[in-house]
Amino acid sequence: MEANNHDPPVGSGEILRPLSTRVAAQIRAELGRQDVSAAELSRRAGKPAGYFAARLSGRTRVTIADVELAAHLLGVSVLEFM
Is the overall model pTM greater than 0.85, yes or no? Predict the structure, then answer.
């Protein structure tokens, strides 16, 4: 079977980008439902004010640890963001 030269190499991060984008959108939606800003979420987490804003805007990739922390701080299941 011939490789498709248009597919990103495994591990390049391009494959994971859509999931990270979708998760960030779900976290933003939950913030909206709870009327909480990204800066407030960062404050609750003990992080710099722009920590979650950078992740939720796509400037920085959202990690599993970020998702777990946001879920905990917002009182929802991690599965709500998947």
Answer: no
